[in-house]
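Hi V.,

Quick status before I head out on leave. The structure for the redesign project is tokenized and pasted below; the design run finished overnight.
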């Protein structure tokens, strides 16, 4: 899987194992259009919401914006309702990814926690009307994902997360090829992605 960050909370995931490769755009899309109009699959993190300018797209990709289980182009997707938003769990081949936009004060249910802890990669908001880095890091410690990819943050949020989790300075990188992370160290690895131009 190849992951790039397109805005504060919009990501492009590409399943490179599939031929032709499958492109998944994932985000809140509240105040921005779909930045990858040629995506095969669009996952909207707000329940029943649509990307800005959705009606203007000629060739619309498959859209998921409500709870349920889906299978699209060999990609397994679960959309789980939580506090007006959707938690996404995706399975791309052997890799599992969870997307958690702006976790709220409302606690996750034990079932939601179990589902998210199965993920190899957790994309989670550090701020942006969410819990903030301190409480989000507590949630990360509870879930114990092998890899965390933060979103909705400013640089000081990253450094606070590093302090709390006990890691060194977190540097942004342009993208992440997950196949190169075959030997993930014990604990949680934080990989911050810069917003691609």
């Amino acid at each position: 899987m190849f992951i790039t960050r397109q805005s504060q909370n919009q990501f492009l995931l590409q399943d490179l194992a599939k031929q032709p490769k499958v492109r998944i755009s994932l985000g809140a899309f509240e105040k921005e259009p779909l930045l990858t109009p040629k995506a095969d699959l669009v996952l909207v993190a707000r329940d029943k919401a649509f990307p800005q300018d959705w009606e203007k797209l000629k060739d619309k990709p498959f859209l998921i914006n409500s709870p349920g289980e889906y299978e699209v182009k060999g990609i397994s997707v679960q959309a789980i309702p939580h506090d007006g938003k959707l938690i996404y769990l995706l399975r791309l081949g052997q890799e599992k990814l969870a997307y958690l936009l702006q976790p709220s004060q409302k606690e996750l249910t034990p079932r939601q926690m179990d589902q998210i802890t199965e993920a190899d990669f957790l994309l989670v908001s550090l701020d942006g009307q969410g819990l903030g880095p301190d409480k989000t890091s507590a949630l990360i410690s509870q879930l114990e994902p092998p890899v965390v990819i933060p979103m909705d943050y400013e640089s000081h949020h990253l450094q606070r997360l590093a302090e709390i989790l006990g890691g060194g300075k977190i540097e942004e990188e342009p993208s992440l090829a997950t196949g190169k992370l075959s030997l993930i160290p014990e604990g949680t690895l934080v990989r911050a992605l810069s917003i691609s131009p």
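Above is the designed sequence. The first strand starts at residue 2 and ends at 5.

G. will cover questions while I'm gone.

Best,
W.
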